[in-house]
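Q: Could you predict the 3D structure of Vegetative cell wall protein gp1?
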Amino acid sequence: MGQLWNELAKKLAERWLTLLVLPGVLYLAVAAIAHTLRRDHALDLGYLSRQITSYAKDPAVGTVGGQVVVLVAVLIGAAALGLAAQALGAFAERLVLAADWHTWPNPFRYLAECWVTVRQRRWKTAHIDYCTQYEAALAPDPSLRPSPTLLSIAANRRMKIAVDRPERPTWTGDRIHAAAIRLDRDHHLDLATVWPYVWLILPETSRTEITQARSALSRAATLAAWAMLYIPLTWWWWPAAPLAVAIGLTARHRIRITTSVYADLLEAATRLNAVALSQTLGIDHTGPLTDRLGDNLTRHLTPRPPAV
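A: Sure. Here are the predicted structure tokens for Vegetative cell wall protein gp1:
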């Protein structure tokens, strides 16, 4: 038991150091540089070196007690910033997934609705173009088929808007929602209803993969939060602006990748385990997943409304 607790404490310490302290220490270092250089000496490394030397010669910092106090203050400040970034990251994640955008207060709900309409119009145009290229590519005569590059360009143009017909104001939100749309369209399965039950019968390896994908999405959202925290530093030190932009673009890229992986895993796990779920529930079915089975599962697992 003692070895188990030691290993657990070690893992918690590693996560605490990686997720909270190290990003916070980096932020504190940049904030200290911004406070020292400000606008007048934005890129003056010589001035920065002289100021650091001056701080190091301070009698309060030269003692062991003073150094311990500084170290503890840095660790506490870094951890506090890490917690703030995680809280802001949770808000950023909720914003980019936009699952509840219909409940947003006005004018944000109205703006989101207008943007969804624009995205739907753009996606429909891109989808028609893709279908036209796809049909042409199936022509019996090879000479009548367009270049494969045109089909790839049309697919990428549609993908940049959304994987399926947009229903949310963000690409990331639509990527998650696309899994539910396709399961409903292909097999009449309601993902929100069926997923908790599918999760309970998944093999441990599948659970681990999905959990890791979900955690990666949360970490990417936290990275976006760090980008937002760097923005106020630009008031004192303009080089913080390109740093915030670089972190923000990296976060955007990682959010899209991790969201796509997570959505694919959700859809694949549901398709692969829906039949096994029906057997667990005692629903008589043989063969692959069908529309009828999807209807039965959704109806069987949907709670009845309360009596009037």
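Q: Anything worth pointing out?
A: Residues 2-98+170-301 form one domain.
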